[in-house]
Records
---
Amino acid sequence: MAYPIQLIEPVTGRVALGYHGFSWTTLFFGPLPALLRGHVIGFFGMLAIDICTMGLALLIFPFFYNKWHFNWLMRKGYRVGSSGVGGAVSGASSNSQNVINVTVGSLSPQPAAALANGEDTSSPATSS
């Protein structure tokens, strides 16, 4: 079983998951998990070696692919996140999700009549 590890790219804040342990997905699907994770070099490397060994490498790669992918992410500049012991992500915790809050327009609702007239009611009106 593989254990997920949250990785964060410090400049952009992108979050990726690296794994530690045996890769069941690589055992069942060969090099496809590498392609789905964006590890194109890993995909073509595993594909070429699988073809050269007539599929025998399909039984070897699951033992070390997760570490290869994790080290690849670390070389790209990702660092271990701070969610739990050792950066491990537990199941569906909220720490493993990206949340973006976006506010469009003003924070206070504007009356429909003012909007129809083109009036700006976002700033408080001063009366004299």
Note: The longest helix spans residues 40-52.
---
Amino acid sequence: MSARARLATFFAGLIALFGVSYAVAGAVVPDDAVDRWQERVEPAGDDEESMDHD
């Protein structure tokens, strides 16, 4: 097996692994957990202290 074929097989497997992981995470993680996580995170532009460069 040539190096090109091995790399192609490796990257195809890696893409498949990420695709399956994404699908499983979408099925397993509840939507309310995502909503609660997004509520805790504040956008960087809303923080007044981040504008203070002293």
Note: Helices lie at 3-28, 31-40.
---
Amino acid sequence: MSKGPWSCNEDVLLKKLVNETPKKQDQIHWVEIGRRMNSRTSKQCRERYRHHLDPKSNYYSNMFIQLVIFMIYLTLNLLNINKNIVNRSALSEEEKDLIWDCLTKGITSHASIAKLIPGRTPLQIKNYIYRERAKERVRIKAKMSLPNICNVSATRKLGT
């Protein structure tokens, strides 16, 4: 098995084998092609054909488009053209009330609630809800402690 760059002869042979080898259920039988190729493994043949020789493949054109989109995204962020500025300050009372109103009305999706509050992300909404629920659980546990339930003073002796 050889490593390294593919020769033109190998490319021609691979195309020929792909066209000649019978397909199973419309799938190319790469193991058979690898056996007949002699110099390359079936995986090498499959990758070479899919990414370089297949006339239906648009692998590199898709990569180029994704690269261009990423470059535009970076440029917009560097120029601060992004108008969706995230508000990182603490939630206001109005925002808190709106969140609880949504929850009582059955809107439980953090993303849906975040759309109603400009500048807030779904993660901020989720963290606020989880934090408040955790505080409520602590308050309930404190109320359910033995001294509070029995209304017994900690200094009072039992049996007297």
Note: The chain has eight helices and no strands.
---
Amino acid sequence: MSVTLTAYDHKLESVHGIGIKGSQGVKVAEEPDAVDHALLAELQEDGRMTHAELGRRVGLSAPAVAERLRRLERLGVITGYAVRLNPAKLGFHVVAFIRLAAFGTEPAEGSIDRLTEIPEVLESHHVVGDDCWIFKVAVPDVGRLEEILGSMTALGRTTTSIVLSSPVTGNKLPISGEPAG
């Protein structure tokens, strides 16, 4: 009998004497399976859920959940865990999107890196279209926004949109129990 085992069920070999297919021993599943998708869907709902509670919801033990989550982190499926903050409650009363259309084909080497090091830059996206980059910033006031814009205008034309409200934030990916294929 020959089976391909995943990292989270490698104990089957020693308990049941099952032969391992392949020359390198245990094969690690590289693509998220239906159980992984169920775990990810649960984590999107509550990222603070314990491994025991996650396991109860998807039918695994807490150690099996921990191992699967480590594998998903290693694969880059899970890129981190974070708390969502209200910028206004912390003194960042202006949220804006700044679009940058570079002079020429691309901004000078290293200039985008310098912009992303500005603490108020929350996100940066390299895009196609009329603009090359889109930045999301949170600043205390319009004066600080003007300073940031000043550092960008040497690189290209900027267009700024100040956020009035955000009716939809933090939507979850539509993960079903089945992997996309």
Note: Residues 1-27 have pLDDT under 50 and may be disordered.
